[in-house]
Amino acid sequence: MSRARLALAATLLLVGLPAIAHAQVFLASKPNAPFEIGPLFVRASVTPGLGALDVNVIWSIVLPATRSASGVEQDLYLMWPGSLVADAKLGQGDPALDKYIADRGFKVTRSGRLTMTAQNLYRSGPDRAEPIEGGAPFVTFLRQDSGPLGSTTPASFIRIPWDPRALNRAYLMRLSMKAEGLIRPKPATWLEHTLWGNRYRLLLSFNEVRQRALFRLYLEHRDRVVRLSEDPAQLIVDFAENDRLKIDELSPHSATRQPSESRAKTERVSLFLDRSEGLIPQVLMVQFGYFSGFQSWAPVLIPLAIFAAGNVGGVLLRSVAERLSKRWAGRVGFWSKTAEDRTRETGVVLDRDTLARIRPGTTTYEQVLDLCGRTVEERTSPLGAPDRRTLVYRGRRIVPRRRRVAGLLATVTHWDVEDHEVEIVLEHDIVRDVQAHVRRSRLMEPATV
Which of 197, 332, 375, 429 is the most buried (most CB within 10 A)? Predict the structure, then answer.
């Protein structure tokens, strides 16, 4: 009974432990490779010209201290999530590798060879890099499906020939290639492109086997995956001409940014790889752009331009607005049939009924003021007739003539103007004569109304 309980406890303990899957993009030729990869550096170099990037994969092979180097010789394979450019000086690719990919239903789009060297860590100068004859053959391929998914993005399969210097701790193996598709433009408005230049996103990844083209190969060879060792492993991006560089965003937050120790005017962004992440892709994302001379002054010139526009442009806009307001005031409005909504009067305009109530010989001076108002011009003749005076009432009536445009919207075609003038002559404060004059005219501009 105690043995059963002990076995049950051990089983629960094992189940409770986190499972660590060391699935990487390096594959061995044989299952259960007895070695690991370490250290590992995947370094991309970016210049203002962009295009295909120079990428270097630098690594060595680590054997356990208890394992002999005898019998571990085998080619390695690297699955790369993107298209590669061949080195024309190394000749044609490997027909066997092309056939291997084509037999699995993939469409081969490009093949060739990549430069491969062994770097001696204890040498300097041109003799440090020892070339490996024939380089590393590769094939770039697509997966085409007849269904709605269609064709995949390109992926590459690289065969890395075995070299005994990979086991020598005095050497690091270096695979040099030109990779396409790592940089993609970031969508932006035309104003952002003009003022701040084009913006791009660079993605450099490891453990990335989720692509439809690569995932099938990974499933077939997952027993040949080579794990990372405890040695440092990094994703590195070097940006040349950092005096014209603007980095907007880094992801993840653990990524670091600092000037390069070996290259002048170069900014280095790096991310340490965590070997405990297993199959989870580890991606270094950099959002950046290279700016011109004008764009470098944009943070200073734009506020100055806004300040100038606010002071100078404000005066110009106000002047234009006043002119337009005078020109179009009263020309556009809503249709109305009532005369009160259309007629406008200034001064004193006396109607017929009011004038009929003024009777010569009877109406007095005070009665006239009560009927017509006290806004009046008064003329007297102190020399010839001191008891004679004349009251003058002046006013203007403006009637806009409208034309309906659509629905309740109407425009004014012209204005009919009536200038009224009434002269009332009094002697001894009694009305003797009344004269009314009306002058009619037509105006086409509201500014003169």
Answer: 197
* Pairwise CA distance, residues 289 & 291, whole Å: 6
d(Cα 350, Cα 353) in Å, to the nearest integer?
8
Residue 372: which of 434, 296, 294, 438 has the closest Cα? 434
Q: Distance (Å, rounded) from C-alpha 131 to C-alpha 115?
A: 8
Please give the model's pTM, rounded to 2 decimal places: 0.62
Residue 153 CB neighbour total at 10 angstroms: 14
Give yes or no for a contact between 55 and 177, defined as CB atoms under 8 angstroms apart. Answer: yes
Tens digit of pLDDT for each residue in 296-352? 556 666 677 776 666 666 777 777 777 766 655 555 555 455 544 567 888 888 888
Residue 299 C-beta-side C-alpha neighbours within 13 Å: 3
Rounded Cα distance, 274 and 280, in Å: 10
Is 260 within 8 Å of 267 (Cβ atoms)? yes
Measured between alpha carbons, how far is residue 167 from residues 35, 62, 64, 72, 163 in Å? 10, 7, 11, 10, 8
Compute the distance between CA of residue 449 and CA of residue 396 in angstroms, rounded to an integer: 10
Helix locations, 58-160, DSSP H = 95-102
Residue spans per domain, the chain: 20-292, 297-328, 332-448
Specify whether the CB–CB gap between 176 and 115 falls below 8 A. yes
pLDDT in tens, 280-294: 778 899 999 887 765
Q: What would the two tokens of residue 32 be?
A: 């259960």
Q: What is the pLDDT of residues 185-221, one digit of tens each?
A: 888 777 666 666 788 999 888 877 777 788 888 888 8
